[in-house]
Amino acid sequence: MTSILTYTFKNLPNTSKWALRFSVRPLSCSSQLRAAPAAQTKSKKTLAKPNIRDIVVVDGVRIPFLQSGTSYKDLMPHDLARAALSGLLHRTSVAKDVDYIIFGTVIQEVKTSNVAREAALGAGFSDRTPAHTVTMACISANQAMTTGIGLIASGQCDVVVAGGVELMSDVPIRHSRKMRKMMLELNKAKTLGQRLSLISKFRLNFLSPELPAVAEFSTSETMGHSLDRLAAAFAVSRLDQDEYALRPHSLAKKAQDEGLLSDVVPFKVPGKDTVTKDNGIRPSSLEQMAKLRPVFIKPYGTVTAANSSFLTDGASAMLIMAEEKALAMGYKPKAYLRDFVYVSQDPKDQLLLGPTYATPKVLEKAGLTMSDIDAFEFHEAFSGQILANFKAMDSDWFAQNYMGRKTKVGSPPLEKFNNWGGSLSLGHPFGATGCRLVMAAANRLRKEGGQYGLVAACAAGGQGHAMIVEAYPK
């Protein structure tokens, strides 16, 4: 392993000096991958603040998250978003009382750029209910939720629906810029001579399409390539990543079989059968995973299809309300939505470390410590991303040299971490994952008897988000 890391450091661009700090500190989590026990009920203070409205999530749903190219492949994003909104309406019957609707998405369908509005109209919401769409990479649904929180906290609204959607089965593929320019100019040409003059400039290479790239605009580097470098920097081996990847699949399968994924609502796909379950849960073995080749850095990379989240189609939606409004309408909320933070850092060498930077900030804002948290729900883009964050969070050296902190925050204990599976197994529709994370935390707190949940996620651009969820008293 040492020789591989040495080769990697020599041949990968711009590996930061902090890489060597972790290169001799291998991490193995195989002994910690057993199923987690239920959290113990504790007596803790509430995070309610004077003169600030208490905001609650009444309920949240998602249609099954499916691997791209499967049952949703012939649909459009607004079809998925509409299905999630319809599922929320079926559970809550709240349509006429909603003040505002916000949805997150990443790869927009040109025909329905404001997918929140189109989906809301199709789902049966009033045409007098405003709706807008936000994008913030993998934390787009998080942004939708917190925008809704802001509207309620400021008194502008009482009832907001937030959600997100992504359809990776069908992404926009454009003509080349030269071809687009020629077509636009041809459309404006008024004479035959002008048209013939433009056509004479046509070249065959104009027909080369522009495919959407899952790469950082600022660095031109794919997220997987960045993760391979990050894993090498923190001495997270291929075996570490494969061992971790076993965990979310086994826990998700268990949660699915036991009916714990109660946020999933069935979706009757037009012309096809009704979809009732996520289809990316695939328990495997280390032997099978070891056969897969690296995807990004070859031949010495460590990121494979088995230890990465997969391209996913899906949508989610949540009903967020001022507590007094929810109670007046007869609802029993699931959880309070408390403090949240957004962070950003270097998108080259620290692209996926959002949870490391966001977690201590949101804990301090809420006046909590890691030991106060009963349920952690972190987005799993890759196994290596999670394990690198664990190491960074557990390092005084990293805290002091890169975060301006005196001491580390500490890494989450695995017995409280993503207990019902994570993005590696359930899937990751870019714009929809944030709502899934919050509902998983809320539902786990109710089931396991805990009080506080911490949701965190990284995102493209070197950004991140974290939020505290507090269980609603039974």
What does it look like?
The chain is of the alpha+beta class and 474 residues long. It is 35% helix and 15% strand. The protein has 16 helices and twelve strands. Strands 1, 2, 3, 4, 5, 8, 9, 10, 11 and 12 form a ten-stranded mixed sheet that branches. α8 crosses α13. The protein is globular and about 80 Å long.
List the helices and strands and how they pair.
Layout: H1 2-11, H2 18-22, E1 55-62, E2 66-67, H3 77-92, E3 100-104, H4 115-123, E4 131-134, H5 140-153, E5 159-166, H6 177-188, H7 192-199, H8 223-233, H9 238-257, E6 267-268, E7 274-275, H10 286-290, E8 312-322, H11 323-328, E9 335-344, H12 354-366, E10 375-378, H13 383-393, H14 396-402, H15 423-426, H16 433-448, E11 452-459, E12 463-471
Helix pairs in contact: 3-4, 8-13, 12-13
Proportion of residues in helical segments: 25-40%
Low-confidence stretches: 1-15, 24-28, 30-41
Could you state the order of secondary-structure elements as H and E? HHEEHEHEHEHHHHEEHEHEHEHHHHEE
In whole angstroms, the N-to-C terminal distance is 51 Å
Let me know the average pLDDT: 91
Please count the beta strands (DSSP E, at least 2 residues each). 12
What's the shape? globular
Q: Tell me the structural class.
A: alpha+beta
Multimeric status of the protein: single chain
Specify the number of helices.
16
Q: Which percent band covers the strand fraction?
A: 15-25%
The major β-sheet equals:
10 strands, mixed
Rounded Rg: 23 Å
